[in-house]
Amino acid sequence: MTLHATAIVNHVFALYELHGDDDYIGEPVSQLEHMSQAAALAEAEGFEDEVILAAFFHDIGHLCAAGGETLSMDGFGNVDHEKIGADYLRKQGFSERVAALVESHVVAKRYLTYKFPQYYQQLSEASKATLQFQGGVMTAAEAAEFELNADAELIIKLRQWDDMAKETSIPVNNIDHIKQKAINHLTHIKRQ
């Protein structure tokens, strides 16, 4: 089981080796720096491995579709990258919770811009530009539905890490650690 999980993780992380140094859609960090920082923020707050993995993988959809086979958000990444990434993780055998958290980080941005209009001003220029491609500010009905999600607070937390994980000059030194968490996660799921 561990050997199979290791092969899957090596396959997934090959995307980071191939595209991780790419520009992170107009931000001052690379894709890999962004993902690494998001995972480190989740771990520093004491969250469990599924959440740490979701934080790391939240933008994997940009890497899955890096070949240009999906619609672009005017050069700011791929339309529906959250769904592309979540579906990719499901196919690789990651838990539904990891995939659902990955899929929800864009919804959280839409929710926060509805619930707290000043949040929009805190967004980076790239995040502001992509918001319209992602459905824009939520409606009141969409926000009420979002608030019923049992993981709503965690989804918002994931969005906060996404917003914060854009610092320059932070070394990427947790990749082997994240890989091991992913192997453990997949091994555990196979045993269930």
TrEMBL record:
Q: Which domain of life is it from?
A: Bacteria
Q: Where is the HD domain?
A: 35-108
Protein name (Swiss-Prot/TrEMBL): Phosphonate degradation associated HDIG domain protein
Q: What is the protein's species of origin?
A: Mucilaginibacter gracilis
